[in-house]
Amino acid sequence: MVRMPLRGIKGTYSTAVVERKTMTKKSTHKASVKLSKQKPQEPCQLVEFEALSHDEQFERLRLERKVERAFYEAGKALQELRDRRLYRSTHQTFEQYCSERFGFTRRRPYQLIDASIIVDNLLSEAEEMCTNRTQNETDEMCANRTQILPTSEWQVRPLTKLEPDEQVEAWTQAVEQAGGKVPSGSLVKSIVEQIRECKKIHNPWRVNEVCRILVKDNPDLRGKGGCWAVITEVHDFSCTVTLWDGNYQVKPENLSELPYSNEHSEAVRKLSERLSKLYHPKMEETAKSVLSSLGRIDRSWLTEIEESLLGVLEAKIKQ
Question: What CA–CA distance (Å, rounded) separates 27 from 252?
């Protein structure tokens, strides 16, 4: 038995017992170590931060705003590109341009544009409220109104379902419930649903009306943007519609009115019925593509080639 000192934690020493055992050709050492002291807990340390100058504080706020408003600036730029048709030298449509230039889905540029419009609404309302503030409101309270703004498109997406004045009301409530911080998209969505429920928004659609699908935030409608829809049932907050590939439950804001006369609307209904009768989930992808294309054309009639394609499918399926 050999007693030897063993360095412990932070300069303390403990005694270790080392047992030596000799084997045939090689020796191995087996040590059992028992420390007399436990590792002390790390004390709390106070961290001192360096104060910023007035100019540095202003610059920090400016840069933070750039980060927070990246989606806003993108939406404003996309809106100008679309409205001035600055894509026309290389692309036929705005959607095609956004897809090839930025890798956006069909709906994404419109989401950013809608978000930038909402932020403009929040900013103008906040500035107006501060201009007409009461004597009890301080400069800091007004500053908070303009500083607590959305930092992502997802946070304001639910607000698209409300009128401009309701958007301000919903955002104000969300900021308050978030403890004066930027609220999450889920919190904003919850408040929007509460406002809509209390308001009991009237559903403007009627049975047999012909309209066009707007995907917005409905994942079940992905790939169906621009398709015809014939309304078969009207509920308080939704409609049941028939598309070329079946029935869907949608919200009123997922439908867009078509500027068709009664005669043209009737033609669309008949054509939509022909398409939906042909569809089957197990049909060939080529046939599905034909039905999908015919189910979203921007007119109430078919060209000669389109009518021939549809006729071939009808004849083939009847066999």
Answer: 84
Q: Residue 8: CB partners within 8 Å, gap ≥ 6?
A: 14, 35, 36, 37
Name the residue ranges covered by the structural domains of the chain: 63-199, 210-318
Which tokens belong to 172? 């104000």
Q: What is the Cα–Cα distance from 148 to 70, expressed in whole angstroms?
A: 15
Backbone dihedral angles phi then psi of residue 221, each to the nearest 5 degrees: -105, 10
The closest alpha carbon to 230, from 207, 264, 251, belongs to 207
pTM: 0.48
- By CB atoms closer than 10 A (0-12, 13-18, 19+), residue 261 is exposed
* Alpha carbon distance 238, 183 (integer Å): 27
For 51-109, give the DSSP string. Answer: PPPHHHHHHHHHHHHHHHTHHHHHHHHHHHHHHTTTTTTT-SSHHHHHHHHH---SSHH
Tracing tokens 């066009």 back to the chain, one arrives at: 212
Mean pLDDT, contiguous 10-residue spans, the chain (319 residues): 41 38 42 47 71 83 73 92 90 90 90 93 79 54 64 92 90 92 93 82 86 85 90 89 92 88 91 92 91 91 93 86
CB of 90 closer than 8 Å to CB of 97: yes
